[in-house]
Amino acid sequence: MTEKLKSLPDDALIVIPMRNTVLFPGVISPITVGRKGSVAAAQEAVRAEKKVGFLLQRDPARDQVHADDLYWVGTVGQVVRYITGGEGAHHLVVQGQGRFRVLEFLEGWPFLVARVQVLEAKDEPMTPEIEARFLQLKQQAAEAIGLLANAPEELGMVVQGVTSPALLTDMVANLLDVKNETKQEL
């Protein structure tokens, strides 16, 4: 990018539409971008060290994406790694950090930009009932990971080390084999 872009408002994020992935807070995920706007968004986020808003597309086949084509609740993330691959593919490793809601989309950038409201995660007080459910979910997640053929051994150890019920819930939701629309509801 040779031209200087105008700066983003303080309450705005660069937005990257996701065709087939829902990013969850606390999860590190590989993402491939190829559309011109998404590549420009990723490059600007890395250059300016800005966080990115990741939103699921309603129709993954759609190439030209507008505000109405996206869910308006998504995950704020940081691009941890940016790799340019062959044939124009751009690979990102991103870490989800929290949820946000779009207030409005803004014009004037070569990629999607939206004013957003960050949704604060509330860890409920650890009541005996929440602790029991948390420990049960942790045990079931560890068992399920043990049954996965290609799951790295470290993943089970990560699950065992999680101390936040909200983070464990997001990690498990990320691993569920369900439609993206269902993950979006979560």
Explain this structure to me?
The protein has 186 residues and is an alpha+beta fold. Helices cover 32% and strands 30% of the residues. The protein has 5 helices and 6 strands, in the order ββαββββαααα. It has helices at residues 36-48, 128-147, 153-161, 165-175, 180-185, and strands at residues 12-18, 28-33, 52-56, 73-84, 90-106, 112-119. It has a 5-stranded mixed β-barrel. Strand 4 (73-84) and strand 5 form a beta hairpin. Helix 2 runs antiparallel to helix 3 (153-161) and helix 2 (128-147) packs parallel to helix 4. It is globular. The N and C termini lie far apart (36 Å).
Q: Topology, pairings included?
A:
Elements: E1 12-18, E2 28-33, H1 36-48, E3 52-56, E4 73-84, E5 90-106, E6 112-119, H2 128-147, H3 153-161, H4 165-175, H5 180-185
Parallel strand pairs: 1-3
Antiparallel strand pairs: 1-6, 2-5, 3-4, 4-5, 5-6
Helix pairs in contact: 2-3, 2-4
Summarize the structure.
This protein has 186 residues and is an alpha+beta fold.
